[in-house]
Amino acid sequence: MLVKQYGPHSVFLDQLAGARVESRRMTDVGVCVNLSTSEKAARVDAVDTEISEDYRTSLDAPCDLIGFTLFIREGCLSFLEGYTFGDVKWPEQSIDEWLVLDAV
């Protein structure tokens, strides 16, 4: 998502490389992840936005599509939300077993 939106040399990619998961909460239909970036990481002034992308999965419908929204606040990566569509339960298997990283 970041490369598509901001290019392969984005400061946000540097932030992501050093980001840590501050907390994570599973819901029935997704996951919420609070991100923490280093105070030394470069910021991107005046950027408060969200970017979203849908991704295919290797699972059968209706679990064959999920979405992610990345929240950027005060020029820093802040929060990542992953979600299913249509009130479908978030898959129980490890995400690396079913997520297809080619965006829809």
Architecture overview:
Helix content is 12%, strand content 45%. The protein is built from 2 helices and 6 strands, in the order ααββββββ. The chain has helices at residues 2-6, 11-18; strands spanning 20-27, 30-36, 49-57, 65-73, 76-84, 99-103. The radius of gyration is 14 Å and the shape is globular.
Q: What level of helicity do the residues show?
A: 10-25%
What's the end-to-end separation, in Å?
11 Å
The computed structural class is mainly beta
Cross-sheet strand order for the largest sheet? 1-2-5-4-3-6
Average pLDDT reading: 93
- Encode the helix/strand succession as letters: HHEEEEEE
Q: Describe the largest sheet.
A: 6 strands, antiparallel
Poorly predicted regions = none
The coarse overall form would be: globular
Count the beta strands: 6
In what range is the share of β-strand residues? over 45%
Summarize the structure.
The chain is mainly beta and 104 residues long. It has 2 helices and 6 strands.
SSE arrangement:
Elements lengths: L1 H5 L4 H8 L1 E8 L2 E7 L12 E9 L7 E9 L2 E9 L14 E5 L1
Antiparallel strand pairs: 1-2, 2-5, 3-4, 3-6, 4-5
Question: Which descriptors would you attach to this protein?
Answer:
six-stranded antiparallel β-sheet; 104 residues; 6 strands; mainly beta; 2 helices
